Amino acid sequence: MKNLVKYLAFIPLLLIQYSCDDTSTDATVNNGDVVGSWMLTGLTGTYVYTVAQPGSDSGVTWPADSTYGIKVRWNYASYLPDAYKTSTDAWIAEVEKDSVALYTNAVYDLATMKAAGFGLIGVFEDAPALGEDATYKMKGEYPGIFYNYSQCASGGSTAPMTDQGLYTWNPTATSNNFVIKRDPSIAGSQVLPPFDDGDITVMTDSSGNSTLNIKFLDRDSHSALYAQVMDAWDEGMHPDTSYGGNGINSGGDRTYMAFPPMVLDEDGAFVAAYDGSPGTLPATEGYYKSPMFAYWGGYMTYYAFVYNAESGLLKSGMVSGVDSDSDGTITDTEVVTYMVSNPTNTLSSDPTIKYSDLVTLDSTTGAPKFTDDSASDYSPTNGSAGGKMTFDVISDCAVPVDVTIQFDATFARCTTDNCVGDDYHVSPTWD
């Protein structure tokens, strides 16, 4: 079970298949209305991915202050001196240990399930005696988010499922009355996660239509909560082959996630993480906008970049005459005043640019005015002209996370064994 579930690192949805049932007989029925064949008609999954930092047994030791997410870097940063290669980095999304990297609700009704191309048929067989283990089977196509380190991607998709395991139902309880476990006599993988505190309810309306509802918490991909449903935790390895990994996933119980590329706005600037929405395309490069660059049209431009670099130098106190009031603290106002007073000085980072290129006195108000160079794009062949800088997206491909998924699945009773001929949109072949 672990192998498959782990491969589907983001596959919480896969666990959805947990509820199923089998055909009833004319003999004494110990598990009541649960026994029979059912088709999945509704599904809600609440996914919580929390950043976790495994121990060194994962092949990697992370500093305690490690952060993860999506950042951008100037596409010419590699030409900067080593000490400045990361000076243009800016976080679009940043998370740290114990922070929630993903929280989302996925809701499917029958129509959306058909459109997405997945569906499940569950069969619950009867128990030999009340309160004893009974066999369930689950077949069909299940949804999930599949992680692949080699592609630096986590993406939604569907996969075939053929599960058989054991379930236990306690008809005397209305909650914590449903257990799913692996059948030790059956080899192979099992998509459904084990749990011992699920809720199962069977309801029949006035027309005789029966509905089966199953709720459970999947926690076998959570390094602390797994002990509630599993005997042992397999940390696996960091996916990177240089750390002993397989280049795809952890190979164990540990889930990793990849942050996505970005989406651009109408001006070509990063605006949000790509989520696959219709009409949007992923982008790996674009402009970077921020209110902190209001003087430069809202963009990170070359003038904005070199001004901030020069400002940092002047504030360090390495240049005399900047601290005009000699109070030991150099303010932004003093930096600007110094530049305006020394217009022919050139930048330490780029001697082709003078202070007067960056900031001048407004001819009307007499106040300092920054030069807005956002009307054009930066070109290394004419760097002194400034321009908007283009940034590459740097997304973390293997963020270690703990995962819990709360599932709420609804099934409708079939009129035939294994739902054969019941016009369900998924028709698996039964042995």
What does this structure look like?
The longest helix is centred in the last third of the chain and has 14 residues, at 302-315. The chain contains 5 helices and 18 strands. It has helices at residues 2-7, 110-116, 302-315, 332-341, 355-358; strands at 36-51, 67-74, 90-96, 100-108, 119-124, 134-148, 153-169, 178-181, 195-204, 210-221, 255-257, 262-264, 270-273, 285-286, 359-361, 368-370, 391-395, 399-413. With 431 residues, the chain is mostly beta strands. It folds into 2 domains: 2-52 and 98-258 and 397-419, no CATH class; 289-388, no CATH class. The strands form 4 sheets. An 8-stranded antiparallel β-barrel has the order 1-5-6-7-8-9-10-18. A 4-stranded antiparallel beta sheet has the order 3-2-17-14, with no helix packed on it. The protein has a two-stranded antiparallel sheet with strand order 12-13. It is 10% helix and 33% strand.
